[in-house]
Amino acid sequence: MPSSAMKKTLTDPIHLIYAGGTFGSYGRPLAPLSAENFLPILQQLVSEQKSDNYFPHIYWLNNTLIKDSSQLIPIDFVHFYQLLLAAYTQRHRRFVLITGTDTLSYLGAFLAEAFSGSDICVVVTGSMRPLLDSEVLHSYAVDAHSDAWENLNESLKLAAAGESGVKIHFSGESWPAQTVQKIHSHDLMAFTGHSRAAYPSNSYIKNLTDARRQHWSDEQRSLLTNISSRAEHTHVHAIYCLPNDTEVINKQLQALLSQLPCGIILLGFGAGNVPYSAALAETLESLFKKGHMVICASQAPFGGVSESYAAGSWQYDHHVLSGGRLTIPAIYARLLWLLLRYDSPARRRQRWLNNINQTGTSIKKR
């Protein structure tokens, strides 16, 4: 039998957010059902589970943004941040967010950055197969072979435990959101991550007092107008190194010089090696002077970057910042949050350096 502490934990409410994706898709071709069509079915399934005394109480947050996750843009990420922030400000702290798998790791990592320093508990999940069987076209029937219900059920239990932070749960496993990446395009075990996470996971507080939670919430709400405004014109670009002449990558970077200060992920070979040329070094200097943030990442899915090779270390002398061991979704998320949250390139760079030093990277400040 569960302990009295567990009984109390499981009776605390969880707020569920449905945002579309494969989980709620139906038909031929698959497309997300509207909330009006899908939520009654999902609510009925959840209510049927409430006969179990140890199943958490579920409430529903009204979400107007239902779309395929491949279509999400920065303003959409801010939408979910605002939705969760409004509920958190009202003293709700346990949430499950159902979204699509294409950008699930990006959204999860973004929310982890945005809610650092709080005691919120958010579990992000989705599925590789729809909850409903598209072979049954005249009525809605649950697909017995889908991973959707199991992912949701386990995510609800994880949220019921109430551990602070943003996590992703998928196919029986859970990880801190900023460590997760998609590694398979259609297998049910589509994601992986790890538990050796540093910032922002280590910034979460187990339990905030009412006064500290109010102070945190007030500070975040005071920034919402600026964050929403910046999200309309904020961009993060990815430049992929290939075995080409350096002039190719140089021209790609030069094309960004005329834009508003943005984030640029430079995907190098191996441990972050980037082919050198004097022209490319000059372009990196110009990008820095214009206020752009260039982050070096590895094309390899694991291991991150280092300064072990001269072929990669030269770029850090021209204001490129290390991505450390962060995944590409985590780098995107941190860049996006810094661009939205802080109003000057200098403050953004300083925050990046402060945070990346907590990931265990060996790149020194230059």
Unreliable residue runs: 1-10, 360-366
Structural classification = alpha/beta
Number of helices: 12
The CATH class of the largest domain: Alpha Beta
CATH topology of the largest domain: Rossmann fold
Strand order of the largest sheet: 4-1-5-6-7-8
Question: Rg, please?
Answer: 21 Å
Specify the CATH homologous superfamily of the largest domain.
L-asparaginase, N-terminal domain
Biggest pleated sheet: 6 strands, mixed
Helix percent band: 25-40%
Strand content: 15-25%
Mean pLDDT: 91
Number of strands: 14
What does this protein structure show overall?
By secondary structure, the chain is α/β, with parallel strands linked by helices. It folds into two domains: 223 residues, Rossmann fold (3-Layer(aba) Sandwich), CATH 3.40.50; 125 residues, Rossmann fold. It is built from twelve helices and 14 strands. The strands form four sheets. A six-stranded mixed sheet has the order 4-1-5-6-7-8, with helices on both faces. Strands 11-12-13-14 form a four-stranded parallel sheet, sandwiched between helices. Strand 6, helix 5 and strand 7 form a beta-alpha-beta unit. Helix 3 runs antiparallel to helix 7, helix 8 packs parallel to helix 9 and helix 11 runs antiparallel to helix 12. The radius of gyration is 21 Å and the shape is globular. The N and C termini lie far apart (57 Å).
